[in-house]
Amino acid sequence: MARRDEIECWLTDMDGVLVHENAALPGAAELLEQWTNAGTPFLVLTNNSIFTPRDLSARLRSSGLNVPEERIWTSALATADFLKSQIPGGTAFVIGEVGITTALHEAGFIMTETNPDYVVVGETRNYSFEAITKAIRLLLGGARFIVTNPDATGPSADGPLPATGAIAALITKATGMEPYVVGKPNPMMFRSAMNKIGAHSENTAMIGDRMDTDIIAGIEAGLHTILVMTGISDQAEVARYPFRPDEILAGVHELVAAQPEESDAI
Description:
Layout: E1 9-13, E2 19-20, E3 23-24, H1 28-38, E4 42-46, H2 53-62, E5 72-74, H3 75-86, E6 91-95, H4 98-106, E7 110-111, E8 118-121, H5 129-140, E9 144-147, E10 153-154, E11 161-162, H6 164-175, E12 180-181, H7 187-197, E13 204-208, H8 211-220, E14 224-228, H9 235-239, E15 247-249, H10 253-257
Parallel strand pairs: 1-4, 1-13, 4-5, 6-7, 6-8, 8-9, 9-12, 13-14, 14-15
Antiparallel strand pairs: 2-3, 10-11
Helix pairs in contact: 3-4, 3-7, 5-6
C-alpha cells in the first residue's frame, strides 16, 4: 500500500467520520478545506441510498461542512453506474426512495412493473407488503436481483430500524435468490468512485469507521486504509478481524495536523 505522503486522492465515509448525528466531527471541516484548497481529488461515500447527492450536500452544509454534490458518491449512484454498464437503457422495478430512482433515471433506466431486467432494492422508510410481493413475483418471473447495500439495520433516535439488508433477506427467503450487492463492502463501489475522480488504487486512501465495510472493501480495492475511532469501532472491535487497516487514528483531525510533506507515518 502507498505511504500516506504518497496519497494523491481520498475517499472518505460520511457518518462516523465527518459527522455524527448531524454534528460535524473535530477536524472534518478543516480536512475538507485542506483538500479543496490543494485541489486534491476526493469523494465522500455513503451506503445511504435514500437521498440524492444534492440532499446530502445540504445536510452536510447544515452541519457546517462544505461538500459540493459532485463530491458525494452514494450506493445509489454506484448501483446505477453498475447497471448502466450491464444493460444500457435497461428497465427496473425499484423499492426505494428518490436517491435510487433519480440515479437510475439519470443513468437512462426506465422504471416499470412489467418484465423488468432488474428488481432493485434500496433504503426506504416506507416498505410496503404490496411492493415486496411484487418484487418477489418479478424475480420468480426472471428479473435479476440487485441491492444497493447490505446494511441490515439503520440508526434512529428511537433505536435501530430495519434497513435494506433486512428486506433483501426477506425476499431471498421467499425466492431462494441471493442479490448482487453493489455498495460497501463490495470494492466495486470504491472502483466506481475512483473512476469518477480519475484516481488509481496505488495512490488513493480510504477513511472509514467500520472494519466490516469501509476497511475490508478498501483493502480488497488495493487502497491505503485508515480507520478512525469516531464511529462504531473500538480496539475490541478491531481485534475481532483477521485483517488490519494501514492506520488507526483517533479522528480525521489527525490528518489535518499531519501535513503531506511532513508525514511519513503508516
